Amino acid sequence: MIIGGGVAGLSAAAMLSSHARVTALEAEEQVGYHSSGRSATMLHYALGNPLVRALTLASRPFIEEPPEGFTEVPLGHTRPVLVHAREDELPALDALDSAIAPFASLERVGESQILELCPVMRVGEGGAVAALVDRSAVKLDSDALLQGYARALRHNRGEIVTGARVATLSRDGGTWTAKTEQGERFSAPVVVNAAGSWADSVAGLAGVVPVGLEPRRRTIITFDGPQGLDVGDWPFVKTVGEELYFAPESGRLFASPMDQVPSEPTDAQPDDYEVALAAHRVEQRTTMEVKRIVHKWAGLRTFAPDGKPVAGFAADAEGFFWLAGQGGFGLQTSPAMASIAASLVVGTPWPVADVASEELSPRRFLVQPA
Fold first, then answer.
1. What SS3 state is found at 240?
2. 3-state DSSP of 319-342
3. What is the reported pTM?
4. Is 291 helix (H, G, I), strand (E, B) or coil?
5. What is the chain's Cα-based Rg?
6. Pairing of strands 130-134, 42-43
7. Domain residue spans in the chain?
8. Are 210 and 197 in contact (CB under 8 A)?
9. Region 221-230: what's the mean pLDDT?
């Protein structure tokens, strides 16, 4: 029984359904509603820490060549990532270059090449003077990925139940039973807590000690690019620090101020300040003027205290499996994380040689005696 129908829950459900009977419970009326469906959906390495990068690298083969029947459309297409820096940010760019080098081949470029890739960049004094380019990055199709996992689950006779918000969760005689707010009951010997921003709350229902997850809101706006310019081939453009990213989307541009505002688990809504901040930072870093915001939205990204994902059985409750804390990188690491979940739950071979199960275990958050 998997609680959560985002990419973490659906990918694990799909993988586990080859070995067991699986039911996925999603609180909303559609899968991927809160986070997975509101992501910038890039597979790149300028995100997270070495563990996240290793999981991303291990997930690439699945993204590039998904199993037969998984999807009828590509799961993504190549789009370069351009990470740029002002003069005072060059040490940070050097550090990022060293951090990414074991996982991807990067190209160091100067002002003229920055403008070739993205002609609206502000370069020179007060603007970008150098950048890293990852030409192997992938713009993911989040819907194709989610639907592929759902298709694989159903192919293996698994079930997805939407509108099934869990109200109680208890264990008796080796079986977990979830009762939804609608009064439906579902039982299984193993429950996978893949509830995203609500994962600590689900643990509370089960009497399991929470790991200290923190949901954080991120805001995105869309706007028209400069008149007369075709933005479709522009890269995913990111500051070397956590300040701004923007990229093409359906003939327009989207941008985020990369806000990380702590939030309660909720249906996140854009805040006027972050919306204005996104537009302001676009105008600071580029020569563009954001004349009109066409659309705005927000989503939650949920982090464990150390910024690493959580995957493993709880120390204080038999059959309770954590799969959470995939803050902002859940889509691009989902194939590897799902394979890891299957390995830990049903004993399939360990799939990622460069990652140890202890790095992911919820037991790392246990309070050590003095």
1. coil
2. CEEEEECECCCHHHHHHHHHHHHH
3. 0.94
4. coil
5. 21
6. unpaired
7. 2-71+141-211+306-365, 80-136+214-303
8. no
9. 94
Burial of 227 (0-12, 13-18, 19+ CB in 10 A): exposed
Q: Which of 275, 32, 309, 51 is nearest to 160 (CA)?
A: 32
d(CA 183, CA 108): 58
Report domain 2-71+141-211+306-365's class. Answer: alpha beta
% of residues, the chain, pLDDT over 90: 92
Provide the CATH number for the domain formed by 80-136+214-303 in this structure.
3.30.9.10
Euclidean distance between CA atoms 353 and 342, whole angstroms: 15
- Where are the alpha helices (H) located in 102-141, listed in sequence order? 111-117
Cβ-based burial of 146 (10 A; exposed 0-12, middle 13-18, buried ≥19): buried
Cα Dmax for the chain: 69
150-178, pLDDT tens digit by residue? 999 999 999 999 999 999 999 999 999 99
State both tokens at 298.
């927000």
Beta strands 320-324 and 310-313, pairing class = antiparallel
